[in-house]
Amino acid sequence: MEFRHVFVCVNQRPPGHPMGSCAEKGGRDIYMKLMEKLQMDPELFMSTAVTPTGCLGPCGLGPTIVVYPDGVWYGNVKPSDVDEIVQSHLKGGQPVERLVVSKGKPPGMF
After folding, report:
1. For the residues of 68-93, what is the DSSP string, one character each?
2. Model-level pTM?
3. Where are the domains of the chain?
4. Mind listing the pLDDT tens digit for each residue in 19-32?
5. Under CATH, which architecture does the 4-103 domain have?
6. Which of 41, 105, 98 is nearest to 70 (CA)?
7. 94, 83, 105, 75: which is closest to 8 by C-alpha?
8. Model pLDDT for residues 54-67, shown as the tens digit of each residue
9. CA distance 86 to 89
10. 3-class state of residue 54 by DSSP
Protein backbone atom coordinates (compact mmCIF):
# COMPACT_ATOMS: atom_id res chain seq x y z
CA MET A 1 0.00 0.00 0.00
CA GLU A 2 1.39 3.39 -1.01
CA PHE A 3 1.94 5.99 1.72
CA ARG A 4 -0.55 8.86 1.57
CA HIS A 5 -0.93 12.10 3.49
CA VAL A 6 -4.45 13.47 3.89
CA PHE A 7 -5.02 17.12 4.76
CA VAL A 8 -8.46 18.01 6.14
CA CYS A 9 -9.59 21.62 6.36
CA VAL A 10 -10.95 22.37 9.82
CA ASN A 11 -10.77 26.16 9.44
CA GLN A 12 -13.20 28.10 11.63
CA ARG A 13 -14.38 31.58 10.68
CA PRO A 14 -16.60 33.86 12.75
CA PRO A 15 -20.32 33.03 12.60
CA GLY A 16 -22.02 34.66 9.64
CA HIS A 17 -18.81 35.11 7.63
CA PRO A 18 -19.77 35.28 3.93
CA MET A 19 -17.29 32.55 2.96
CA GLY A 20 -18.48 30.16 5.65
CA SER A 21 -15.97 27.66 6.96
CA CYS A 22 -15.16 23.99 6.67
CA ALA A 23 -15.49 23.60 10.44
CA GLU A 24 -19.12 24.78 10.27
CA LYS A 25 -19.76 22.29 7.45
CA GLY A 26 -18.34 19.25 9.27
CA GLY A 27 -14.58 19.43 8.66
CA ARG A 28 -13.76 18.47 12.24
CA ASP A 29 -16.12 15.49 12.11
CA ILE A 30 -14.42 14.33 8.90
CA TYR A 31 -11.01 14.63 10.54
CA MET A 32 -12.12 12.67 13.61
CA LYS A 33 -13.73 9.93 11.53
CA LEU A 34 -10.55 9.54 9.45
CA MET A 35 -8.49 9.29 12.63
CA GLU A 36 -10.84 6.62 14.00
CA LYS A 37 -10.48 4.62 10.78
CA LEU A 38 -6.68 4.79 11.00
CA GLN A 39 -6.63 3.65 14.60
CA MET A 40 -8.82 0.64 13.83
CA ASP A 41 -6.78 -0.56 10.85
CA PRO A 42 -3.05 -1.36 11.40
CA GLU A 43 -2.27 -1.40 7.67
CA LEU A 44 -3.95 1.98 7.13
CA PHE A 45 -2.28 3.36 10.27
CA MET A 46 1.16 2.53 8.85
CA SER A 47 0.43 3.88 5.37
CA THR A 48 -1.54 7.08 6.00
CA ALA A 49 -1.03 10.37 7.84
CA VAL A 50 -3.97 12.68 8.50
CA THR A 51 -3.36 16.35 9.32
CA PRO A 52 -5.96 18.98 10.22
CA THR A 53 -5.28 22.27 8.43
CA GLY A 54 -6.38 25.86 8.26
CA CYS A 55 -7.93 27.15 5.06
CA LEU A 56 -6.94 25.21 1.93
CA GLY A 57 -8.41 27.85 -0.40
CA PRO A 58 -11.55 26.62 -2.17
CA CYS A 59 -13.94 27.64 0.63
CA GLY A 60 -17.05 27.38 -1.51
CA LEU A 61 -16.31 23.70 -2.05
CA GLY A 62 -15.82 22.87 1.62
CA PRO A 63 -15.33 20.80 3.53
CA THR A 64 -12.19 20.19 1.50
CA ILE A 65 -9.64 17.43 1.84
CA VAL A 66 -6.49 16.78 -0.21
CA VAL A 67 -4.71 13.46 -0.64
CA TYR A 68 -1.00 13.48 -1.43
CA PRO A 69 1.11 12.39 -3.25
CA ASP A 70 -1.86 11.86 -5.56
CA GLY A 71 -2.81 15.55 -5.59
CA VAL A 72 -6.51 14.67 -5.41
CA TRP A 73 -8.74 17.43 -4.05
CA TYR A 74 -12.13 16.45 -2.67
CA GLY A 75 -14.91 18.96 -2.06
CA ASN A 76 -18.26 19.03 -0.32
CA VAL A 77 -17.15 16.02 1.70
CA LYS A 78 -19.46 14.77 4.42
CA PRO A 79 -18.54 12.52 7.35
CA SER A 80 -20.64 9.83 5.66
CA ASP A 81 -18.19 9.91 2.69
CA VAL A 82 -15.18 8.95 4.82
CA ASP A 83 -15.72 5.18 4.60
CA GLU A 84 -15.85 5.33 0.79
CA ILE A 85 -12.73 7.53 0.59
CA VAL A 86 -10.85 5.16 2.89
CA GLN A 87 -11.87 1.98 1.05
CA SER A 88 -11.68 3.26 -2.51
CA HIS A 89 -8.80 5.73 -2.40
CA LEU A 90 -6.61 5.19 0.65
CA LYS A 91 -6.77 1.40 0.54
CA GLY A 92 -7.65 0.75 -3.12
CA GLY A 93 -5.83 3.58 -4.89
CA GLN A 94 -8.96 4.73 -6.76
CA PRO A 95 -10.21 8.28 -6.09
CA VAL A 96 -13.91 8.73 -5.35
CA GLU A 97 -14.75 10.53 -8.59
CA ARG A 98 -18.11 11.93 -7.43
CA LEU A 99 -16.25 14.01 -4.80
CA VAL A 100 -13.16 14.99 -6.82
CA VAL A 101 -12.96 18.70 -7.61
CA SER A 102 -9.40 18.74 -8.96
CA LYS A 103 -6.40 16.54 -9.60
CA GLY A 104 -2.84 17.76 -9.43
CA LYS A 105 -3.45 21.35 -8.37
CA PRO A 106 -5.79 23.32 -6.12
CA PRO A 107 -9.15 23.97 -7.79
CA GLY A 108 -9.46 27.40 -9.35
CA MET A 109 -5.84 28.30 -8.70
CA PHE A 110 -2.71 28.64 -10.84
Report:
1. ETTTEEE-S--GGGHHHIIIIIIITS
2. 0.91
3. 4-103
4. 889 999 999 999 99
5. 3-Layer(aba) Sandwich (3.40)
6. 105
7. 75
8. 999 887 888 999 99
9. 6
10. coil
